[in-house]
Amino acid sequence: MLDTPIVHFDNVVKRFGSFTAVEKADFQIARGEFLAIMGSSGCGKTTTLRMLAGLEDPTEGSILLDGEQINGKPTWERDTPMVWQSLALFPFLTVQENVEFSLKMRKVPKAERRERARKWLDRLDILEFADRNISQLSGGQRQRVALARSLVTEPKILLLDEPLSALDAHLKVRMQSVLSSLQKDLGITFVYVTHSMSEAFSMADRVVIMSRGKIEQIGTPEEIYREPHNRFVADFLGSSNVFSGRLASDGSSVWTVKAEHAAFTVKAPAELQRAPGANVAFAVSSENMSLAPAGASCTGNCVEAVVVGGEFAGASATVFLETDQGQELKVQKGHDELKSVDIRAGQKLLVHWLPEHCHVLPGE
Amino acid sequence: MTGNRNPLIDGLLKLHIALCLIFIFAPIAGSFVFSLNSDRFPSLPLGSFSTEWYRLIWEDPLVWAGFFNTLLVGACVAAIATLLGFGGAYTDFRYKFFGKTAYLALALLPPTIPVVIMGLAMLAFLSRVSLSGNVVSVIIAHGVMCSPFAMAIIRLRLSQMDPDLEAAAWNLGGNEWVTMRHVIIPFTKPAIYAALFITMAVSFDEFAVAWFVSGLNETLPVKVLGFLQGQVSPRINAIGSLAFVSSISFIVIAQLLMRNPDTKTP
């Protein structure tokens, strides 16, 4: 039983009229896992979560919770509590009554209700506010009430729909660590919907990236970061430069890819076969690219580009360049490494990188 | 005061408000004064102070009968209209369906129908189904007229509710009925009370429709007309003053309840 995934989306499709919100979602969520579903607004991530909560019904396919098919089972009969983006706390109840709510719905006796609610309020450091009204709390305190209210039944799975989006940056980071440690201590499954890459990548064990109703990639943050599946994921992460061209020769260790700019030498992917002449796209992380003055001798792959701008924040700087073919490139370097080149706008520079830093996108 | 305000215009506007209020309330105040005047006819100079007219209506069984009819009708109408209004408002809040605009227009229509037409139509219909001429017929007619007011008040409150609140309650294990009881009704409670008082006040004062359908079971406003047709008596002033005080109390209570409780300081 412990080996079965807690959630299984089996080819789930959701349509609203002629609009397809979720297209063939097919994935599993492991027991005790912190899974983030990430994508821009309208990508279907919230609909996916709402289907799991029982607030929407799938048009096709089935959803299994703990091995049991739950299509059509009303949300009040599932134990899938959700933390809402708006928090949806009951304004006419006190903090304590809010937390007791789901126990009251389950007809738990009053004394036990009170005790269990107070235990969770204590655990989330808001016991002192138990008798306050919701309107008297700050944003961060309300957040904790919402968490306590969902966790009080000690569910196997907790659904979170952009719960931190209303908080300011400082509080967001605090709550992220509260959530992470809570999930580790409790060992329950968290499904966390967000549009923020930093939230998803810093907390989740695995991330699902969605776009226009489709799942683009599922993997650990590291896998996704190092080996984006396709151009969408690479662009979405925003830290890579993508080149495309045709496969000219497929050696055992390196491929030669002919692009508009030049022929590039690319590390051959281990588990991918392409015929010569096929379209190939590869990504190069902006941290793995280097800059040299134009006309410098070239090692590995080189492209000439003109500086169009830069961003200097924190420990590293990002330089934006444009090639003769009009492709935008991004190079991220420490300040020391940039000292040797002139990065004023309009300067022509040589951008170079090594074949082993090229990751062929298997989904292109 | 800031320099942006012209004291002359300011003064004129205040005068305008004062005149409007005098125009509205002078007749009512006059009725008050004459109800406590010993003279038989409302004329100046005033006679001596007297509670004679209040004593007379106190001792008049017809006035009491009318008052009890009004009270009974008002209480029933308030309950029925608020229930119907709540249903209408919740339907609007919760569901999307084809023809919703038409549904809303129809539900909010009754107050726009001229009362004489409404009264005649009610009389024609209720006598056809053998319900005219008794207290029930007044309750039905007033229920129709008052539910749109209740619906408007409760709709306003529901529109202030976080749309996720209901779904959150379902998600926490409450089915639709339990959620109605534990979330929707507590949230709309101030509006429900306000609707009860307003519909009661509307029913209390309503004359035209009640005149058509009440038959022998007259409500107080209908009874007052009966008095006026027979003889001009200062008792009318006394009844009018009492009716005004009770109606305005209902309205004031309703207004107090309708203040947004979320913004109230604890």
What does this structure look like?
- The complex is a heterodimer of chains A (364) and B (266).
- Helices cover 24% and strands 35% of the residues of chain A.
- By secondary structure, chain A is of the alpha+beta class.
- Chain A folds into 2 domains: 5-226, P-loop containing nucleotide triphosphate hydrolases (Rossmann fold, 3-Layer(aba) Sandwich), CATH 3.40.50.300; 231-360, RNA polymerase II/Efflux pump adaptor protein, barrel-sandwich hybrid domain (OB fold (Dihydrolipoamide Acetyltransferase, E2P)).
- Chain A has a 6-stranded mixed β-sheet with strand order 6-7-8-3-9-10, sandwiched between helices. Chain A has a 5-stranded antiparallel β-sheet with strand order 13-12-11-14-20. Chain A has a 5-stranded antiparallel β-sheet with strand order 15-19-16-17-18.
- In chain A, α2 packs parallel to α4 and α3 (110-123) crosses α4.
- Chain A is elongated, with a radius of gyration of 25 Å.
- The model of chain A has no long low-confidence stretch (mean pLDDT 89).
- In chain B, α1 packs across α11, α3 (61-94) packs antiparallel against α8 and α7 packs across α8.
- Chains A and B meet through α2 of A and α7 and α8 of B.
